[in-house]
Amino acid sequence: MRERILTPIQELETTGARALATWKLDDVRYLAVAQLARDVPGEPAYMNGGDSDIEAPIFRMEDERFVQCGALPLRGGEDVEYFEIGSRQFLATAGIRTGRGPYDLNTQAAIYEWRDGAWEAMQYFAAFAAKQWRAFAVGERQFLALAQGVTVDGVDATHPRTSRIFEWVGERFELFQTIEGLWGYDWNYFQHGGMHLLAYSDHVSGSSVLRWNGEQFVTLQRFEEKGGRTFRFFEADGKFWMVHANLLAHTTLYQFDGERFVEAQQLSKAGGRELCLIEGGRELYLVRVCFITGTPQAPVVERESQVFQWVGNGFALIDTFETSGATSAISFTEGGTRYLAVTNSLSAEQRFGVASTLYRLDA
Question: Which of these, 178, 251, 240, 162, lies nearest to 210 by C-alpha position?
Answer without folding.
Answer: 178
